[in-house]
Amino acid sequence: MTIDHSVLLAGNPNVGKSTIFNALTGMKQHTGNWAGKTVSCAQGYFRFNKENYKITDLPGIYSLYEASPDEAAATSELYKGNYDCVIIAADAACPERNLDLVLQICELAPKAVLCLNLWDEAIRKGVSVDTKKLSGQLGIPVVTTSARSGSGIRELKKILSGTVNGTITSEPVMIKYDEDTENLISLMTDQLSDRMQNPSAQRRTALHILRCKASCCKNSVFPLLPEEKSIKEKMSERIISESKSISSACVHSTGSCEKTLGIDRVVTSALLGIPILAALFALIFFITVTGANYPSQFLSWLFDNLRVIITEAANKYGMSDFWKGLLIDGIYTSLSEVISVMLPPMAIFFPLFTILEDLGYLPRAAYILDPLFRKAGTNGKNALTIMMGFGCNACGVTGCRIMNSCTQRRTAAITNVFAPCNGRFPLLIAVISMFLSPLMPDIIQGIAGSLILAAVICLSLFISLLCSRLITRFIKSYETDCFIMELPGYRMPQPGKTLIRSIFDRTVFILGRAVIVAAPAGAVIWMLAHFDIENKSLIMYLSEFLEPAGRLMGLDGAILSGFLLGFPANEIVLPIILMIYQSCPAITDASAANELMSVLSSNGWTIKTAVCMIIFTLMHFPCSTTMITIWKETRSVKWTAAGFLLPTACGVICCIAANLLLSLFL
Amino acid sequence: MKLKKSALCELPIGKKAVICSLPENDELRLALMRLGLCKQTEIQRVLSSPFGDPCAYLCRGTIISIRNSDSRNITVISEEDNDH
């Protein structure tokens, strides 16, 4: 496929950029109602009027000052200029603030189209924008869209096609700065004239340097540059006043945030703020714990029956024992295991969590919890990265880009593993519902289970904060910290769409991951268990070697081997442990709670083992994907090593402590 | 009508004011400017979080939360209340 036009999609966070991207390309990027959801540049393609377009979705940014890695990445894409046009997405309900970025992009981009998204919301809020006048003032075409319902997208494509083909003029406005700044800019453009001919390119470069690169070019290229601070500030003030005047000319009635504020007066109030936060999460955990049992049992029944059929078929076609063992006992069983234990809790947890996300509640949680995180030397945004970590630690680590300073970003990245991801969540639920909640009377078991789970989550949060505190103390970072965050307006979630999207997207993702990781891992582990040296399988050697260490931690060798071999994916930890216990070359069915419990109990599992198991599940080395992500994000051997050692050390220490303590009482 | 200078964090809930100076700290200034706060911008304190810190302000149509330790260094001008 030849690409005829390349287009960038830029804009403030939370204006529905990902929704526009999805509407244009028909792709399914995950969207959410908070700043920082899109963490990397997604690329997609679409075809319009017999021409192919490549579109790059830049992360949401507030400015081009390169104040965060996201902004730096987006700004450099915009400055590089390998594109034909920029679509600037803006919130139609809040045009004035969005104009700051629009004006800055206009100064960098040779061609642009303004897309006023969330138009339906703006109309509901009573905002009315004179798009013709706005287009005239900015010098670029303006389109109004409501990407969620898909309206205006065709018009956007039409205008875009006209703009890139030159039938619609797009000459982004260049702001005139005060005399001093303009003199400086003309001085710089003179110096640049021998390197580039085009005067507007010269001006773009000069502005880009003034905005972001002043400190590094000061001595070498432009000795006359004044203090970076004052010039940036002057430019910024000029831009803000310009967007004020444009908005007062083109926006007729400004909407109010009364509805959102009304909700917030209750949801973040001194009296109800914390109870509501606690209740919401407890409710989600309760629904997940109690609801996951039934589909889990059904799936394992289904896979058992399917297994019988497959085995019969294999016998019929005379498959050799080796291949039957490898394919059915190894690969098939570990695959079905992963799916039947892991899928149901995720299929319940994620839609619920996504509803909170779409609603816009998560930034409120960060806002409420900020004082807690502040004590740990980070800030409320860390709460957001932890919540992302509940889904997948690798995503959580990437999400740490929203943190302000470099040390905080790295600290948040290596402590993210304390948030139990979806690979470990079902494991926790299984252990709790087998060993801990039966200690309570029958009637309250469901509630007790979710309360214990909530306590476990609180423990993980506490350890994560404690580690952050220690790290920031240890490094004595002098970076100033601030917590300045936007609280986006509440939006009605679309439960139907959410349910379908999060089940389908995650299911496909999880199944894909299960096939990629669990299938070969199942084969390897089956081999390890199958090949004997002096009548003992390799896996038994490993397990016996780790036995003393395991005993000290209140666990045993098999459990530690499970965690070690589960490095590719935490989903397969429990199946490996069971396989070692049965010391037969097949992974046992883990989903039938009673049978599973009998296997575990007969191998010496007690309440103490369960507690230590929970602790070590929360705190051990991250999975391979997360390790790679930590390396990619920090680019530092030290931090990556810390990312491996810190949680492991915490886990070992806590397990030994718990073991000793519980031995006194039990 | 008398005008009064005060720190942003001292503004009572619901009160409107105009920013007259930003904090000295460069990073903080930049963080505020990124979100569109600068001199002459109108700002209104709208919420206080359960622990009383951070607080949320309405500024140019969006709600922004700022810690009290940071908003203490932002000076604003507001109308003096009659009953004082």
Description:
The complex is a heterodimer of chains A (666) and B (84). With 666 residues, chain A is α/β, with parallel strands linked by helices. The model of chain A has no long low-confidence stretch (mean pLDDT 84). Chain A has three domains: 5-164, Rossmann fold, CATH 3.40.50; 179-253, no CATH class; 273-481 and 492-665, no CATH class. In chain A, strand 4, helix 3 (95-108) and strand 5 (112-117) form a beta-alpha-beta unit. Helices cover 64% and strands 7% of the residues of chain A. Chain B is an alpha+beta fold and 84 residues long. Chain B has one domain (3-79): Roll (SH3 type barrels), CATH 2.30.30.90. Helix content of chain B is 15%, strand content 39%. Chain B has helices spanning 26-34, 68-71, and strands at residues 3-7, 16-21, 42-48, 55-59, 62-66, 75-79. In chain B, strands 1-6-2-3-4-5 form a six-stranded antiparallel sheet. In chain B, a hairpin with a 6-residue loop joins strand 3 and strand 4 (55-59). The longest helix of chain B is centred in the middle third of the chain and has 9 residues, at 26-34. Chains A and B meet through helix 3, helix 9, helix 10, helix 13 and strand 9 of A and helix 1, strand 3, strand 4 and strand 5 of B. Strand 9 (485-487) of chain A pairs antiparallel with strand 5 of chain B.
